[in-house]
Amino acid sequence: MKPVLFLKTFPLSFFKWCAAILIFWGSIDFCLAQTPPIYNVRDYGATGNGTTIDSPAINSAIAVASNNGGGTVEFPAGTYLCQSIHLLSNVTLYLDSGCTIEGASSGYDPVEPNAYANYQDFGHAYFHDALIWGENLSNIAIIGSNPTSTSTNSLITGNGHLSTGLAAGSYSIGDGDKVLSLRSCNNVTVSGVTITKSGHFGILANNTTNMYVENVNLLCSSSRDAFNLISSRHVHVTNSNIQGSDDAMVLKSDYALGEVLNSEDICVDNDAIISTGNNATQFGSETVGNFSDVDFLNLVITGAGKAGIGLTTNDGAVISGVTYDNLTMSNCATPIFMHIANRGSAPGSPPPVGQIENVSINNVTSTHASDDGRAFTSTLMGYPGAAGFPVVNVQNVVLNNVSVSNIGGIITTSNPSDTSGYAPQNISSWPAYGWFLRYANGISYNNNCQTHLDSPDGRPAIYSAPAPGGSVISQ
User: Fold this and answer.
1) Of 27, 80, 431, 473, which sits 20 to 30 A from 196 (CA to CA)?
2) Average pLDDT, stretch 380-385?
3) What are the φ/ψ torsions at residue 120 (nearest 5 degrees)?
4) Which of 211, 124, 133 is nearest to 168 (CA)?
5) Number of CB atoms found within 10 A of residue 317's CB
């Protein structure tokens, strides 16, 4: 799938709506996204003085705009101290240059009831404990005035008041743990804003359809996850800077909404991505619904405490039809990591085992495979079979012009035991410096695939264990 074709998947009405909200005004030193009529939050009592709680006035302006059929709610320059802001259909929030929406120390909306909360952790199971949230909405947007800004213009910040680890036993009413939370929304645009100090999530979007994210700075390396895109369809994330201390740009499918929902037609392109402690791009760990037709294109990844390219299925999902093309990676503890596990947290008895298949990796260069003292080997590892389940291979992975490296200096030939863990560090050792393959079948290395060591060690470039049903590697 090419980006130009990806655009064709959106309904024409969505692009008409985007065209209406993305217009230039004045000297075009910034992109102004306003659809008339315009509702200025100051006219509804917001002060922007940084000390008064302005969210009641802001929510009044949003409600009036939505009740009148839609429009733009404008935030002039100032600092708006807020508890939970409630998005509503057909409303654009427009942040002028010099505007900051800042999270209050407490007073966020309480979490909603969820009978399915035990299938995933607290942060994924609830949506209302957020600085900005919307549920069952259509035609919504958050637009900033200066998409090239890195921190000062059109800023949305949790201000250090959003938690990175709420749990059922630690939650108190008024706590918040995410900046932007979307549940079952359609036709969503986020552009030209910077999100910082975001708690558990910069953006959490579950069951979102037709979402366009462009020129967004998700600067969440002092928080946790940058962007969790869950069980969503027809999504384009482009020209953005995505930073997390936990997962940065991650695709998931959980059971928070009480049903198995698939993810498809997703394109992440022309982005700069870093995870200081986890995965830069990742599938999982929550993986209940299937994933298909997903592209990661033209990315610069500058660090990952786990994997630069990570694909894990742990809860029964089939991951198929995924393409990576033109990625430059550095300082990733593991350049490429694929693993099939069965941790039993999906609905059904017994819970299913997932699959990883039909993956294409092209024109990828990864240098200095280490981060924060970690140095792991690129790994393709399927499911070993247990408790009545058969072996499930990672299969049909084609690599073209892929170069991976390792810092080396490790003298070991030990063969690790099977692991049910979904992180690279759950594997105890690697008998190869370039590629470790177990329960993998139909893996093709073509057209100038290479492995490199910074310092020599005693391991071969590739170790592959025979897989049932056929050859492991073709070259």
Assistant:
1) 27
2) 94
3) -150, 170
4) 124
5) 29
Taking CA atoms, 408 is separated from 301, 347, 411, 416, 464, in Å, by 21, 42, 9, 18, 19
| Maximum Cα–Cα distance across the chain | 71
User: Mean pLDDT over residues 70-92, rounded?
Assistant: 98
* H or E stretch at 325: strand 318-330
**Beta-carbon count within 10 A of 6 CB:** 20
Read off φ and ψ for residue 303, nearest 5 degrees.
170, 145
Is the preceding omega at residue 37 within 30 degrees of 0, hence cis? Answer: yes
Q: Which residues contact 195 (CB under 8 A, 6 or more apart)?
A: 156, 157, 179, 180, 202, 203, 216, 217, 218, 219, 220
Strands 241-244 and 272-275: parallel
Contacts by residues 123-126 (CB-CB < 8 Å, ≥ 24 positions apart): 123/165, 123/166, 123/177, 123/178, 123/200, 123/201, 123/204, 124/204, 124/206, 124/228, 124/230, 124/252, 124/254, 124/256, 124/286, 125/254, 125/256
DSSP state letter for 69? T
Q: What percentage of residues in the chain have a pLDDT greater than 70?
A: 88
CA 412 – CA 93 distance, rounded (Å): 57
The pair of structure tokens assigned to 349 is 């008895």
Q: Report how far residue 297's alpha carbon sits from residue 278's, in angstroms, rounded to the nearest whole number.
A: 20
Cα three-residue angle 240-369-301, rounded to 5 degrees: 5
CB-side exposure of 192: number of CA atoms within 13 Å? 27
| 198 token code pair | 């975001």
Residues in the chain: 475
- Total Cβ atoms within 10 A of residue 458: 11
Residue 3 belongs to what H/E stretch? helix 3-6
- The two tokens of residue 81 are 């101290």
Q: What is the pLDDT of residues 445-467, one digit of tens each?
A: 999 999 999 888 888 999 997 65
Answer for the pair 398, 446: CB distance below 8 angstroms, yes or no. yes
Average confidence (pLDDT) over 141-156? 76
pLDDT digits (tens, 9 = 90+) for 263-273: 999 999 999 99
Task: List, as one string, the DSSP characters of 193-249.
Answer: -EEES-TTEEEEEES-EEEEEES-EEEETTSSEEEEEES-EEEEEES-EEEESS-SE
Amino acid at 295: D
pLDDT at 26 (0 to 100): 29
pTM of the model: 0.91
